[in-house]
């Protein structure tokens, strides 16, 4: 590529067709701009996927704590109802966050998730290809749709 640019510059210096070099630069700039925009979308999509994985990991840790409390209570060790309720509340909050992330990922991938079985269907589908239930088309306002096109980080990297 560099050799091509140098050769075109050399031709321009000799007085031959200056517009060829200018056209090349304009075309190259356009290609690089498109590539940059595509890269931004890919990075945004990747951030959503990573955020979703982090949320699932946090849910798993909380469910592990709940399981340990249940096991210990079955063995006769007393536990705090307040602690259980806080863990359940946190799991529910994270599950809502996970659902939002999954919806945004599906939207970017141009898919519709079945609310019954979770299968990802093509966006124009009326019924789920997996379970046959009618798909509900959610109404997104313009701000939500634009926000999902270039996704930013959703989840902090803090451990629970």
Write the layout of secondary structure elements.
Blueprint: H1 2-13, H2 18-74, H3 81-108, E1 111-113, E2 120-122, H4 142-149
Helix pairs in contact: 1-2, 2-3
Beta-strand fraction estimate:
under 5%
What value does the average pLDDT take?
79
| Major sheet attributes | 2 strands, antiparallel
Uncertain spans: 139-160
Number of separate strands: 2
Number of helices: 4
Please provide the ordered H/E string of secondary-structure elements. Answer: HHHEEH
Radius of gyration: 26 Å
Distance between the termini: 49 Å
Work out the helicity level. 55-70%
Shape: elongated
Query: Helices and strands: which structural class?
Result: mainly alpha
Strand line-up of the largest beta sheet: 1-2
């Amino acid at each position: 590529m560099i050799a091509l640019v140098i050769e075109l510059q050399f031709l321009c210096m000799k007085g031959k067709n200056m517009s060829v070099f200018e056209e090349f630069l304009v075309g190259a700039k356009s290609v690089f701009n498109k590539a940059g925009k595509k890269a931004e979308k890919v990075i945004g999509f990747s951030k959503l996927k990573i955020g979703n994985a982090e949320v699932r990991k946090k849910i798993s840790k909380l469910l592990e704590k709940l399981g340990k409390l249940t096991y210990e209570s079955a063995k006769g060790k007393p536990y705090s109802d307040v602690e259980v309720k806080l863990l359940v509340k946190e799991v529910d909050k994270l599950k809502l966050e996970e659902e939002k992330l999954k919806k945004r990922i599906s939207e970017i991938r141009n898919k519709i998730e079945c609310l019954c079985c979770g299968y990802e269907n093509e966006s124009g589908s009326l019924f789920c290809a997996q379970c046959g239930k009618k798909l509900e088309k959610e109404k997104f306002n313009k701000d939500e749709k634009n926000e999902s096109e270039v996704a930013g980080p959703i989840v902090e990297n803090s451990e629970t």
